Amino acid sequence: MQLQGEQSLIWSTVVANCRMNRERGLLGVNSYEKELKLNILSFLEQKAEQKEIIYWLDICCGTGKALVEAAASLQSKGITNVKIEGWDVAGVFMNGHTSFSNLQFVTDTITNWQPTYHYDLITCVHGLHYIGDKLEVIQRCISYLTKDGLFIGNLDLKNIKKLDGTNLERQLRKTLQNCKIQYNLRHHLLTCEGKKQLKFDLQYVGADDQAGKNYTGQEVVDSYYQ
């Protein structure tokens, strides 16, 4: 097994395939709502009534269809204080997205993310399956939530291992539980409410992009730690 570094993963055919660069909408059958069990639009609208500015970050946003739909809906309702930011390594975003002043897309790996403010919502729909250092991304996302912010993303703990191949699921679940971070085994959903300082005490050593399929039925990346 040859482990890949974070930058080399960008060129992996597993990471850059069309199935990762999804075209999920915001609501409905093939949607963020279905995958995350959350109506993001309602969440943002409620937050927008409570605060001066609301920030939503979506990691591995694909074509950004859901984000464009959210921006359009908010604009039609006259809600101007929600800022939406989407990151994706492929950089193939929907046409017309530049017409929304509250929407920004970034073509880059999220491991290069250098946030300048805290977020009210951070989402990652199946994107963590393709990231090398999954634990570092999760730690950073949770640390950059507002005090009442929400992080939610799909995660398969079986894709996080020690160098000898040992599964870290039990250890990780205990760490998450101690920090009052929820992990839904049935839906493979990680949910954190409010900013937290989370430490896994594991060192990332590389990723295997030939790990095969996980529960999604798609080929994914295994992350290795020591």
Question: If you had to describe this structure to a student in words, what would you say it looks like?
Answer:
The structure is a single chain. The protein has 226 residues and is of the alpha/beta class. The protein has one domain (6-225): Rossmann fold. 23% of the residues lie in helices and 24% in strands. The chain is built from six helices and ten strands. The chain has a seven-stranded mixed beta sheet, sandwiched between helices. β7 (182-184) and β8 form a beta hairpin. It is globular and about 55 Å long.
Helix content: 10-25%
Corresponding CATH superfamily: Vaccinia Virus protein VP39
Spatial strand arrangement across the major sheet: 3-2-1-4-5-8-7
Specify the number of helices: 6
Number of domains: 1
Unreliable stretches (pLDDT < 50, length at least 5) are none
Molecular shape? globular
Radius of gyration over C-alpha positions, nearest whole angstrom: 17 Å
CATH architecture: 3-Layer(aba) Sandwich
Q: Mean of residue pLDDT?
A: 93
Quantity of strands, as a count: 10
Return the CATH class: Alpha Beta
In the CATH hierarchy, the third-tier topology is known as Rossmann fold
